[in-house]
Amino acid sequence: MSGIFADRTTINSENRLAEMFGGNLGKDGIKFSAGNPDPELFPVTQIKKAFNNAINEYGNQIFEYQTISGFKKLRNYLAQRTIHTEDIKATANNILITQGGQQALDLISKLFLNNGDGIVVEAPTYVGALSAFEQYNPCYYDVTLKEDGLDLEQLELLLQAHPDIKLLYTIPDFQNPTGVTLSLNKRKKLVKLAEEYDFFILEDTPYRDLRYKGSRLPSIKSFDHHGHVIFVSSFSKILMPGLRIGWITADKSIIDQLSKLKASSDLETSGILLTALNQYIEDNNLDTHIVEMLPIYQKRLVTMLEVLDEKMPADVHYTRPEGGFFIWLTLPDVIDTQKLLNETCIPKDRISFVPGKVFYAHKNRRNSIRLNFSGVNEKQIKIGISKLAKSIESVITANKVETLL
Ligand code: PMP
């Protein structure tokens, strides 16, 4: 039967992506299509203890309804962390705890976007964000992503031409899917533009603490003195995604509005999980856990770049991220990477990646690839990337022959 369900099903999670592009690889396949942290790095023993300690400490209370904005002690901790690591003024009243960063994206879209409202997105950008925005039927404006982040000249022309633009979505640190980081000057300039053209910036930062090289840049929000920036983060990549805990930092007036919307959606994030997470943070050092993961991911990134440097044909270009989970490859224009995946990489090489076109609001670009390095070991990287390079080389050669004929 058609017409019963509203048309709101989109690709909306890393698991779904990995399933769509390479779910059928089997045991020996090598998946560069995932986007998740390595489960071997989850501090399972400490989390188990934290659950026990939290139940012993809070008793039945932990199983009760709690508050919409989330366990106060955890919000206090996040406010302190925001002050110390981000140089952003915050109290618990500026924090709303959400079901992962994903719910934050949904709630912010719900608050800001009416049918047809303008939203600027990076081209390419995170699919889950597109799927959250799409529920509210916005009008997308793409801005090209350069080596140092958003093309601000292009953005300013758009802002001049479209005063209806309300929101700009950016992932400034080790962007998903490209690994690109927004430069310091552009961070400052972006806030100035938001003030001048009166729009809000949604700064999404799940990879921010996963820097393997170079020094940390200030958040965009740290330059915001008039409340134009909404900062979103998550425990998914720095701890474990199964907790489904993220948070929003913004002016109290915005947090109050978002809290009402959250209540309509789920009343509150599970108090059991929040209390246990808070207990984990009290009993352990989260920063030590993060620092211990860095060399492991760094080694995978370095290995992937080394094999790419050694094996990829000269007309394939790729980013050189300083953190995060992803590298972005741009192939010659004529190559359709979805076709490459379906016809060669999955059936013959038994490797997978995500074809770049899914990451665009306007899905007309077909010659790019997102590679994930956080979920594969060095051996898999060496074998898998060598195979990918060979297959790409064959398609490039075949195309050259075809154009000669
Ligand atoms: N934003 C970005 C850029 C992401 O890559 C992800 C997850 N892949 C999310 C938000 C959502 O993550 P979570 O809901 O697990 O916090």
Give an account of the 3D structure.
Helix 7 (184-197) links the parallel strand 6 and strand 7 (200-204). Strands 2-9-8-7-6-3-4-5 form an 8-stranded mixed β-sheet, with helices on both faces. The protein has a 4-stranded antiparallel β-sheet with strand order 10-11-14-13. The chain has 12 helices and 14 strands. The radius of gyration is 22 Å and the shape is globular. The longest helix has 27 residues, at 378-404. The model has no long low-confidence stretch (mean pLDDT 93). It folds into 2 domains: 14-41 and 288-400, Aspartate Aminotransferase, domain 1 (Alpha-Beta Complex), CATH 3.90.1150.10; 67-267, Type I PLP-dependent aspartate aminotransferase-like (Major domain) (Aspartate Aminotransferase, domain 2). It has 405 residues and is an alpha/beta fold.
The portion of residues assigned to helices is 40-55%
- Structure class: alpha/beta
- Figure out the total of helices: 12
| CATH fold description of the largest domain | Aspartate Aminotransferase, domain 2
| CATH-assigned homologous superfamily of the largest domain | Type I PLP-dependent aspartate aminotransferase-like (Major domain)
Shape: globular
Task: Say which molecules are bound, naming each kind only once.
Answer: 4'-deoxy-4'-aminopyridoxal-5'-phosphate
As laid out across the biggest beta sheet, the strand order is: 2-9-8-7-6-3-4-5
Distance between the termini: 49 Å
The unreliable regions are none
